[in-house]
């Protein structure tokens, strides 16, 4: 049995974040999730937090620390989309997505790093997307926010790598979620043609990679981008 750690996942009330929380619980860790609404899976602690507000993030950490101890693994997963073509994208469409996806990850990681530095141990996992490096029409804001996480993880690695702290990026491709389920059959078939694996991933397949990169087995991996995309983004 691996050492039980205190894990905090942002946006853990649905989709990939929920699956990540379930996987860490199954592996015997102490798990907390942040959510603006809804709850994390059974066995997790849910705290309310708005990742665009540092005071809200700090309060959530204080709550988790009081209940479960210092956060040793942080997974920055909370994200939003406001897709539209560049010519139609408003400044607010751009700013809101970047502030949540990239700024939210910064606020989370900054607060988590305090306890990690003290403990000389930490695992920072940033959930990006194949779109971050591959690009996607209609997602200038989202792709920019997701590729920014790569520079963030690599800079953190250079700053904190000597303190027993790793920072890595997991970049999922198309995942079976409520969102992809709503796509018309023809569109889904079209997407699957471009994926060498010929199918979408399950959220659990992403969760298992996140749990592994946060484990003691991956102690010598930092600043890496790990794709979980069935080969879609090869070389990007």
Provide an overview of this structure.
The chain is of the alpha/beta class and 236 residues long. It has one domain: NAD(P)-binding Rossmann-like Domain (Rossmann fold, 3-Layer(aba) Sandwich), CATH 3.40.50.720. Helices cover 45% and strands 16% of the residues. Strands 3-2-1-4-5-6-7 form a seven-stranded parallel beta sheet, sandwiched between helices. This is 3-oxoacyl-[acyl-carrier-protein] reductase. Residues 5-178 form the Ketoreductase domain. Belongs to the short-chain dehydrogenases/reductases (SDR) family. GO terms for molecular function: oxidoreductase activity.
The parts where pLDDT drops under 50 for at least 5 residues are none
Secondary structure category: alpha/beta
Major sheet details: 7 strands, parallel
**Helix count?**
8
User: Under CATH, the topology is which?
Assistant: Rossmann fold
Please give the number of β-strands: 7
Q: What amount of the residues lies in strands?
A: 15-25%
Q: pLDDT average, as an integer?
A: 96
Run of helices and strands: EHEEHEHEHHEHHHE
Question: Helix content range of the residues, please?
Answer: 40-55%
């Amino acid at each position: 049995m691996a050492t039980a750690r205190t894990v905090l996942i942002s946006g853990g009330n649905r989709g990939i974040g929920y699956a990540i929380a379930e996987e860490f619980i199954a592996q015997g860790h102490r798990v907390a999730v942040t959510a603006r609404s809804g709850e994390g899976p059974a066995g997790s602690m849910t705290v309310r937090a708005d990742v665009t507000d540092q005071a809200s993030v700090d309060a959530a950490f204080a709550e988790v620390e009081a209940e479960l101890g210092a956060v040793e693994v942080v997974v920055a997963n909370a994200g939003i989309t406001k897709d539209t073509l560049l010519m139609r994208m408003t400044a607010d469409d751009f700013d809101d997505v970047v502030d949540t996806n990239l700024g939210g990850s910064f606020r989370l990681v900054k607060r988590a790093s305090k306890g990690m530095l003290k403990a000389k141990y930490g695992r920072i996992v940033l959930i990006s997307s194949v779109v971050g490096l591959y690009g996607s029409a209609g997602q200038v804001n989202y792709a920019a926010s997701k590729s920014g996480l790569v520079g963030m993880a690599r800079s953190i690695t250079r700053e904190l790598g000597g303190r027993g702290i790793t920072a890595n990026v997991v970049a999922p491709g198309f995942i079976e979620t409520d969102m992809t389920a709503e796509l018309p059959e023809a569109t889904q078939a079209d997407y699957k043609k471009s994926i060498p694996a010929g199918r979408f991933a399950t959220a659990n397949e992403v969760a298992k990679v996140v749990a592994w990169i946060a484990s003691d087995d991956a102690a010598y991996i930092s600043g890496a981008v790990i794709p979980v995309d069935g080969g879609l983004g090869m070389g990007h």
